[in-house]
Design goal:
With 326 residues, this protein is of the alpha/beta class. It has eleven helices and nine strands.
């Protein structure tokens, strides 16, 4: 089944920007600046990031060991192999590196990197400040630091007497629904009844353009859709073939339908709770898919059930069940 993801709706977004800070970082640190170990450097880097976020009334981030590990691995790898990029020579992305250390593939991820060929040890507070100032003065890096939907932070920095300095900021979080197509308040959580109504309106609008009769809402179909992806199984949805659709219906309902059809999609980095924007995202994606569009515009279908479920880590599942009442 199609799996729309955050930003591109086809892959989880890795919001990556590169920054060469050689000029800004070539100045020697002040004599009074003490050398910082990696733990102290990470804590100070987090403080600087949260100062920037606090100034924009954004919630603070927290250090995450997995992001620290991914960031440090990338900094060391760039130093060792003398390359400077978000993707490794083998094509591994920031999201790949996060998942390799146990991070969730459904999280929104972002990365900032910096390089200074003339910088030499030690790592000091002044170095960290200049890095943060450089990133905040670059639109793409600033956007990563101030992005909504992020909750955790990781940092890696290496300074070598010959190879210079490489620094990496990593970010992760469940994301938000705000960037999806939908109403102005598309990021606001809504109850399942409202989800189904919005889906019905969107689908019937397209059916009207195609000269098809509007669908009616079905509580029985909605309950069956919910049974396909209850909150407890959202994380594993899509990993195995769904059961026969008629098996999801109560015995008393099965004889009321001549046929059932399903459309479904998955989104990563899309926020914590089902929102109006999610409904707009899923229905729009379905109509861009010829097979799903044909299903939604089927002239014999009479009713619709719909639900959006979330796993609390950024993964959301949208399910539409169409039925032909007898």
């Amino acid at each position: 089944m199609p799996k729309p993801r955050r930003i591109s709706l086809t892959e989880i977004a890795g919001l990556c920007c590169a920054l060469v800070l050689a000029a800004a970082l070539a100045r020697p640190a002040a004599a009074q600046d003490a050398a910082l170990g990696i733990d102290a450097a990470r804590q100070r880097a987090l403080e600087l990031v949260n100062e920037s976020r606090r100034a924009q009334k954004l919630p603070p981030l927290a250090l995450e060991p997995k992001l620290n590990q991914a960031a440090m691995r990338h900094a060391l790898d760039m130093l060792k192999r003398n390359f400077y990029a978000h993707n490794t020579p083998e094509g591994k992305t920031p999201a790949d590196r996060y998942q390799a250390v146990g991070g969730s593939k459904w999280m929104l991820t972002a990365e900032n990197i910096a390089r200074c060929e003339t910088c030499r040890p030690p790592v000091t507070d002044a170095v960290l400040r200049r890095l943060q100032d450089g990133w905040m003065n670059s639109p793409g890096h600033r956007a990563n630091i101030l992005r909504k939907g992020l909750t955790t932070f990781g940092y890696g920095i290496v300074m070598d007497a010959k190879g210079g300095m490489y620094a990496v900021q990593n970010f992760a979080g469940p994301g938000t629904s705000d960037d999806a197509k939908g109403p102005a308040d598309g990021g606001k959580a809504i109850p399942q009844e409202e989800q189904a109504q919005l889906a019905l309106e969107a689908i019937n609008k397209e059916r009207g353009k195609a000269g098809r009769a509007p669908l009616k809402f079905s509580q029985a179909l909605t309950q069956a859709a919910r049974a396909l992806a209850p909150p407890s199984s959202v994380s594993t949805f899509g990993q195995q073939k769904p059961p026969p659709l008629f098996d999801l219906m109560p015995d008393s309902e099965r004889e009321n339908w001549d046929g059932l059809a399903m459309v479904a999609a998955i989104c990563g980095g899309c926020g914590l709770a089902p929102a109006a924007a999610d409904v707009g995202r899923f229905t729009a994606q379905w109509f861009r898919n010829p097979s799903y569009s044909e299903t939604l515009l089927d002239a014999e279908s009479t009713h619709l059930g719909f639900t959006v479920s979330a796993n609390g880590e950024g993964k959301k599942v949208g399910i539409g069940l169409l039925g032909k009442a007898n």
